[in-house]
Amino acid sequence: QWKWDHAAHQVPSLKDSSHLAVIGSEHCRKVFWIGQDGNVYAYHMGGYNGWTWDVCKLDTGCDRQPHVALAACHRSGSEHVFWAGKQGRLFELHHGHHNNWRCMEYVEHDAPSMRTGERISVQTE
Predict the structure, then answer these.
(1) The pTM is what?
(2) Distance of alpha carbon 94 from alpha carbon 74, whole angstroms
(3) Which of 1, 47, 74, 99 could form a disulfide linkage to 23, CB 3.0–4.6 angstroms apart?
(4) How many other CB atoms are there within 10 angstroms of residue 29's CB atom?
(5) Which 8-state DSSP code applies to residue 49?
(6) Which strands sit side by side in the sheet containing 21-24, from one edge to the other?
(7) Are 90 and 60 in contact (CB under 8 A)?
(8) CA atoms within a 13 Å half-sphere pointing along the CA-CB vector of 53
(9) For each of the chain's 125 residues, which pLDDT tens digit applies?
């Protein structure tokens, strides 16, 4: 039988209007959002930090709007966060085995039919 507990976390850059993307596995729990300052943030914990919640700012160097929805996924060898940017662009932050789980790398993809701020979702196998 599962018993659910409620916990309130103080995360200053997170607002009640923030759009969240969540990933979780046996190795970690992570929540991503774009803050009012336009930066992408992660609230995270895992075996790598003793399962202690921590917040970090992820540097992308691109223009982001706080109302844009994110999509995220975790696979056995990587993590990815996506959002629709300026017309025809899909933005991504990712890390994994390919970069020894160092800082998340930023990539822009051509997506001609994508509109700015369009809601997206991610499906993994």
Answers:
(1) 0.85
(2) 10
(3) 74
(4) 15
(5) G
(6) 21-24, 28-34, 40-46, 54-58
(7) no
(8) 9
(9) 888 888 888 888 888 888 899 998 888 999 999 888 888 899 999 999 999 999 999 877 666 676 778 899 988 889 999 988 777 888 889 999 988 988 888 888 998 888 777 788 877 65
